[in-house]
């Protein structure tokens, strides 16, 4: 395999533009660059979950997710390309079903928190939702691969169920939202 990055500092972005993988240059404020940054941040957040999740089923699932997020980044960096497939979305659906099968029904909203693995999973979920919104903004102007858009939607579901799973595996309680009572009139 050829070297992909043999020179890290190129100075080509010093004037506010950056290169896409197809060789074109766009402003660093371009929607594709925002989406790439959000997907990169999401992948880093998933890495934090993995650092705390040990040898769990969740870790095995999320290790594969990291590869698909790189594929999604490649899609964003090459306009018109498609790397994420319907099979990838189906794999997330299956993982959600598998993890959710052992969880009790949820009767109230959860607060993000709990164990370190759980808290990082909730953070990754929130970043995932932001990345999905960024992709939809790009898609409004430049059609993107529909499977990639669905992938992020399902991934936020997976990260929620993974947070619940990790919290229970670590023996933690799920912190439930306690709505403020309405004042009596």
Report on this structure.
A two-stranded antiparallel sheet has the order 1-2. The mean pLDDT is 88. Helix 1 runs antiparallel to helix 2 (57-77), helix 2 (57-77) runs antiparallel to helix 5 (146-169) and helix 3 runs parallel beside helix 5 (146-169). It has a single domain, classed as Cobalamin adenosyltransferase-like (Hypothetical Protein Ta1238, Chain: A, Up-down Bundle), CATH 1.20.1200.10. The chain has helices at residues 31-53, 57-77, 86-100, 116-141, 146-169; strands spanning 17-19, 25-27. It has 5 helices and 2 strands. Helix content is 59%, strand content 3%. By secondary structure, it is mainly alpha-helical.
Taken as a percent bin, the fraction of beta residues is under 5%
Q: Which descriptor suits the 3D outline?
A: globular
CATH superfamily: Cobalamin adenosyltransferase-like
The count of helical stretches stands at 5
Strand order of the largest sheet: 1-2
Uncertain stretches of 5 or more adjacent residues: none
Question: H/E series, N to C?
Answer: EEHHHHH
- Count the beta strands: 2
Q: Report the major sheet.
A: 2 strands, antiparallel
CATH architecture identity: Up-down Bundle
The value of Rg in angstroms is: 19 Å
How many structural domains are formed by the residues?
1
Distance between the termini: 72 Å
CATH class: Mainly Alpha
- Structural class by sheet pairing and helices: mainly alpha
């Amino acid at each position: 395999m050829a070297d992909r990055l043999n020179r890290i500092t190129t100075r080509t972005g010093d004037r506010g533009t950056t290169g896409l993988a197809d060789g074109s240059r766009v402003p660093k404020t371009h929607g594709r660059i925002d989406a790439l940054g959000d997907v990169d941040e999401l992948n880093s957040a998933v890495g934090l979950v993995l650092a705390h999740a040990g040898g769990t089923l969740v870790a095995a699932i999320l290790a594969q997710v990291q590869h698909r997020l790189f594929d999604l980044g490649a899609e964003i960096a090459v306009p018109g390309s498609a790397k994420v497939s319907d099979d990838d979305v189906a794999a997330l659906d299956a993982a959600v079903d598998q993890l959710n099968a052992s969880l009790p029904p949820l009767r109230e909203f959860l607060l993000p928190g709990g164990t370190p693995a759980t808290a990082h999973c909730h953070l990754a979920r929130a970043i995932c939702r932001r990345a999905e919104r960024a992709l939809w903004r790009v898609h409004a102007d430049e059609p993107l691969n529909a499977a990639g858009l669905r992938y992020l939607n399902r991934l936020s579901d997976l990260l929620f169920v993974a947070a619940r799973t990790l919290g229970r595996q670590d023996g933690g309680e799920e912190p439930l939202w306690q709505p403020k009572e309405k004042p009596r009139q």
